[in-house]
Design brief:
- The complex is a heterodimer of chains A (107) and B (408).
- With 107 residues, chain A is an alpha+beta fold.
- In chain A, strand 3 and strand 4 form a beta hairpin.
- Helix content of chain A is 29%, strand content 35%.
- In chain A, the strands form two sheets. In chain A, strands 2-5-1-6 form a four-stranded antiparallel β-sheet, covered by helices on one side. In chain A, strands 3-4 form a two-stranded antiparallel ribbon.
- Chain A has two helices and six strands; from the N terminus they run E-H-E-E-E-E-H-E.
- About 4% of the residues of chain B have low confidence.
- Chain B has 408 residues and is mainly α.
- In chain B, 71% of the residues lie in helices and 0% in strands.
- The chains are: A alpha+beta (107), B mainly alpha (408).
- Chains A and B meet through helix 2 and strand 6 of A and loops of B.
- Chain B: One of its GO terms (molecular function) is sigma factor activity.
């Protein structure tokens, strides 16, 4: 079972060197214990571009699709047996990156 | 006819949780388990009056429910092959857990999972473990039946999609998860004990009764947990006073004015036995054990004056260290009033104003202390505020009478 762990942040700051180091340690652990699928940090929301091609006529808009104080700063995709395992890993990830996270299962 | 109805009621009380729990393990789906269990009981209602009560009602119901569940899965797999794949449960059977290996315990932990909202945990526990019907739960919490149904449906969908596990948590998680379960049970009890709402009975026995029954079950499943014993003792000692707590006119009767002869001696004896058992265990008590001990002191006294208030205060001091909440501090102040007088207590209560200004008991306590100090006008204002904020009909009636008895 795979879960998306979204990192939620509400300030323009990037991860500090200490936070980066803690994230590396956590990532290593995910890999050795077989939970790792993929992970990444995202550039700031201002760098986002929205494209809507539902009607066949491409609409390009500058900026994120959702204007809000909180935004997605990065994510992990993990493999976990159940929600208890995923929540435990998410708690460690939140601690490592020093940000709030959301856990959501893949369909 | 009556004996048949009694047999069904008894089987429902004794077997419901076991049947839902074992079906959930077998089929890996709370929804299927709940529906099949309900259908099995409906079949019993139809068949037992003519066929007679089977020699082993639990086994009969389990077999019938299993058959219902298999029928449903077959129906759905014919209709939709994808569906069938979803029904084949999460791979491996739950690991054996030795002493606490009981499906019902797994069920309780799933229903009280921290990933569900508190009100959802309460509703789900009452449905799946206690076997209350949707209308009963909706009525108990004063919400529309459709809203309650949706809440439970959403919860079942989340349990399935996010794979909230059906097992006893790991040793590492267990203490926090047990205390989460106890919080659910205590909330059910309190809602029954101090029911809110202008048109409801001041005490809802069905909720206090269910909370006690569920706590007894948890105690059977986790006999060595001190807080489980503590919560059970606490509920029993509060429930024991119920007959004296509301007057025939529907007014709350304060502890000092209750007819102690009307208290339930059997429940008190059982509560005291549990408290003594925990004292003898020699393990530092948690919150529920301390609250139970405080209630044991109250229920040991012949009257208000005979109460060992220094013991009560010592227990509150212990509780404050574990739980420094303003509500604990408020209750502690009530004991202080008995030992050191209302003036000292009032000073302590006034210090809580910024945190408890919206809590009716804060104003009710102040009103009583001010009354005892002869400060009638201030007392009246505090009673007014308490009456505005109180949600329980018996409490409002009591506060109104006390206010109206103040000398002008």
């Amino acid at each position: 079972m795979q879960y998306l762990i979204s990192v939620i942040h509400d300030q323009a700051t990037l991860a500090t060197p200490e936070e980066d180091a803690a994230i590396d340690v956590f990532n290593d652990r995910l890999q050795t214990e077989g939970h790792w699928v993929f992970a990444g940090g995202l550039a700031s929301p201002e760098t986002a571009t929205v494209i809507d091609n539902r009607g066949g006529s491409e609409m390009v808009t500058d900026g994120p699709f959702l204007e809000s104080k909180e935004y997605l700063a990065g994510f992990w995709i993990i493999e976990a047996a159940d929600l208890d395992v995923a929540l435990r890993l998410a708690a460690e990830g939140s601690r490592a990156c020093n940000r709030k996270v959301e856990v959501r299962p893949f369909q | 006819m009556n004996t048949i109805r009694e047999a069904i009621t008894r089987a429902h009380r004794e077997e419901w949780a076991r049947i839902v729990a074992s079906l959930t393990r077998r089929f890996g789906d709370l929804d299927i388990a709940e529906e099949a269990a309900a259908e099995a009981f409906a079949t019993a209602v139809q068949r037992w009056p003519t066929d007679g009560v089977p020699p082993n009602p639990g086994a009969w119901l389990t077999t019938t429910a299993n058959r219902q569940a298999i029928d449903r899965i077959r129906r759905e797999s014919k209709r939709d092959d994808k569906h069938r794949k979803a029904q084949v449960f999460h791979d491996d059977p739950p690991e054996s857990l030795g002493a606490i290996d009981d499906d019902r315990l797994r069920l309780v932990f799933t229903c009280c999972h921290p990933a569900l909202a508190m009100e959802t945990r309460v509703a789900l526990t009452l449905r799946m473990v206690a076997g209350l019907t949707m209308p009963e739960i909706a009525r108990a919490f004063l919400v529309a039946e459709s809203a309650m149904g949706q809440r439970i449906t959403r919860a079942k969908a989340k349990i399935k999609a996010a794979r909230i596990p059906y097992r006893v948590p790991s040793a590492e998680d267990l203490p926090a998860r047990v205390s989460g379960v106890l919080a659910v049970l205590y909330l059910v009890f309190n809602e029954g004990y101090l029911a809110t709402g202008p048109d409801t009975d001041p005490v809802r026995h069905e909720l206090t009764g269910e909370a006690i029954r569920l706590t007894r079950l948890i105690r059977v499943l986790l006999p060595d947990d001190g807080e489980v014993a503590g919560l059970l003792a606490l509920m029993l000692l509060i429930e024991a006073r119920r007959p004296a707590r509301v007057s025939p006119g529907g007014e709350l009767v304060a502890l000092g004015e209750q007819d102690r002869g009307a208290w339930n001696a059997e429940l008190i004896a059982e509560g005291h036995r549990l408290v003594r058992e925990r004292l003898a265990a020699g393990v530092a008590p948690g919150r529920y054990q301390i609250l139970a001990a405080i209630n044991a002191v109250h229920t040991s006294a012949r009257d208000m004056r005979d109460t060992d208030w220094s013991q009560v205060l010592a227990l509150y001091d212990q509780l404050v260290r574990l739980d420094p909440s303003p509500i604990v501090a408020l209750n502690r102040a009530i004991a202080v009033a008995e030992l050191d007088g209302p003036e000292v207590a009032l000073a302590a209560v006034d210090r809580l104003e910024h945190r408890l200004a919206a809590y009716h008991a804060y104003h009710a306590t102040r009103a009583d202390l001010l009354r005892r100090l002869g400060r009638g006008q201030e007392s009246r204002a505090a009673y007014d505020r308490a009456i505005d904020l109180a949600g329980n009909t018996a409490e409002t009636a009591y506060l109104t009478r006390r206010r109206d008895q103040l000398l002008p």
